[in-house]
Each structure stands twice: as structure tokens, then as C-alpha cells.
């Protein structure tokens, strides 16, 4: 069964399971890049599955606090440790370098990580909760054993999707997250110049108050998101 058929079947099963039982306002917090690139394209299907739920979507940095309890579910990028909250793993992530094909026109080759010295680096300064300005590139280059590259140069942004937009416009080389960049790769807007994917140090999780999933609406949206992530 192809992915779209599986997706439709799961959505229909969830819709039938919770039909007539859920409704009202539902507050979902989500880190901005994941919201923009992964969740937003899926929201029409969520709306179709549960038409009586009124969504309140809040874009919030991973550095923001989840302690004020003003949410039903939150999607965050972290190690899954949230004192006072329960979590469900949603997606693991891979990291790799990407750039626009136009960046390489008339420039030195970029066939190996060592050749990054010839190109600007693009940094997401909010790569994960508690990260610092150059943390993501440092983590990636250390993991693949690439030495001698000064990461304290290039351009910084405070959203992953802005970093990817800058890469798409030929401003430099960015660290991409596999779950957030499928369209750009399929359309040829970005390329992976030298491979070397690694597992990210953090993963996407659903966070919620203990006992929150006892309510039908929270359980329904929670289960729907988990099923979307495994397809």
C-alpha cells in the first residue's frame, strides 16, 4: 500500500474513532521551522479528520518555556526530558549540509567537507533548546570528523527555515534537517554536495501535562500526529 493510501486509511480510522466525541478549542505549540515546513502542509488533513476542533497554533522557539501550561500539546526539538511533563517521541532527525546549485557556479568544488573553507556558512542560532550561535555546525563537523574548518564565520539566522531560505538563494551552505527539506531537494532547489548525513542530537517530541491524554480531543490529535510521523 502506498504512503498516501496508508495516510488516508489512518486519518479515516481516527475520524471514525473520535467522531462525535471531540470539539472545542485546541492549543498547539510548535517550534516555528517545524510548524512551517512539516506541520502546516498537514493541517488541512487534521481539519478534515476533526472538523469540530478549533485550532489555536502558537509558533514558539525551542528556547521558550513550556511551564505556563497554556497549551494542550507542544512539539519541540529536545532530548525528551521535561520535568513535570510527559512526552511521546515524534520524529528522529538527520542532519546534512545543503546548498543551492548556483552557489557552485564558477567556484571551487564542494565534494568534501574540507572544501567548506571556500564557502560562507549559514547558522541557525536556535538549532535546539540551549544551543549557541555556531553549535549546529560544530556538532555536525565534529561528528563527521572534519577538522580545521572555522565555523565562526558566515551568516546567522534565528530560524532553521530562514537558514534554508538563505541557502536556496545561494548565500552559503546550511545544515538541513531531513524532515523539513524534502520539497527543496525533490525540486532541485537545493543539493547535498558531499553527503555525510548524521543523526541529530535532539529529536522531535510531543510534550503534554501528565494525564492530558485522558481527554478525547488531546488523545485524538496526539494519535493523529504520531501516525503522520510514521508514514
From TrEMBL:
InterPro entries: LysR-type_TF_proteobact-type, LysR_subst-bd. Signal peptide: none annotated. Residues 22-228 form the LysR substrate-binding domain. SUPFAM superfamilies: Periplasmic binding protein-like II. Pfam families: LysR_substrate. One of its GO terms (molecular function) is sequence-specific DNA binding. One of its GO terms (biological process) is DNA-templated transcription. PANTHER family: HTH-TYPE TRANSCRIPTIONAL REGULATOR, TRANSCRIPTIONAL REGULATOR-RELATED. Belongs to the LysR transcriptional regulatory family. This is Transcriptional regulator, LysR family. It comes from Pseudomonas amygdali pv. lachrymans (Pseudomonas syringae pv. lachrymans). The lineage of its organism: Bacteria, Pseudomonadati, Pseudomonadota, Gammaproteobacteria, Pseudomonadales.
Amino acid at each position: 500500500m502506498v504512503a498516501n493510501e496508508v495516510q488516508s486509511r489512518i486519518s479515516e480510522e481516527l475520524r471514525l474513532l473520535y467522531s462525535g466525541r471531540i470539539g472545542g478549542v485546541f492549543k498547539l505549540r510548535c517550534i516555528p521551522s517545524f510548524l512551517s515546513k512539516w506541520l502546516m502542509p498537514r493541517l488541512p488533513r487534521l481539519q478534515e479528520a476533526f472538523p469540530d476542533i478549533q485550532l489555536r497554533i502558537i509558533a514558539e522557539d525551542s528556547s521558550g518555556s513550556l511551564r505556563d501550561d497554556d497549551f494542550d500539546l507542544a512539539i519541540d526539538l529536545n532530548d525528551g526530558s521535561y520535568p513535570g511533563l510527559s512526552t511521546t517521541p515524534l520524529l528522529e532527525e538527520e542532519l546534512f549540509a545543503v546548498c543551492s546549485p548556483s552557489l557552485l557556479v564558477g567556484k571551487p568544488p564542494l565534494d568534501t567537507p574540507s572544501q567548506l573553507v571556500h564557502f560562507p556558512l549559514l547558522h541557525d542560532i536556535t538549532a535546539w533548546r540551549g544551543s549557541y550561535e555556531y553549535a549546529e555546525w560544530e556538532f555536525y563537523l565534529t561528528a563527521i570528523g572534519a577538522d580545521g574548518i572555522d565555523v565562526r564565520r558566515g551568516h546567522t539566522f534565528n530560524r532553521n527555515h530562514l537558514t534554508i531560505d538563505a541557502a536556496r538563494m545561494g548565500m552559503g551552505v546550511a545544515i538541513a534537517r531531513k524532515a523539513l527539506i524534502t520539497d527543496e531537494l525533490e525540486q532541485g532547489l537545493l543539493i547535498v554536495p558531499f553527503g555525510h548525513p548524521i543523526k541529530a542530537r535532539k529529536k522531535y517530541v510531543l510534550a503534554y501535562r501528565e494525564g492530558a491524554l485522558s481527554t478525547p480531543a488531546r488523545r485524538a490529535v496526539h494519535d493523529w500526529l504520531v501516525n503522520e510521523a510514521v508514514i
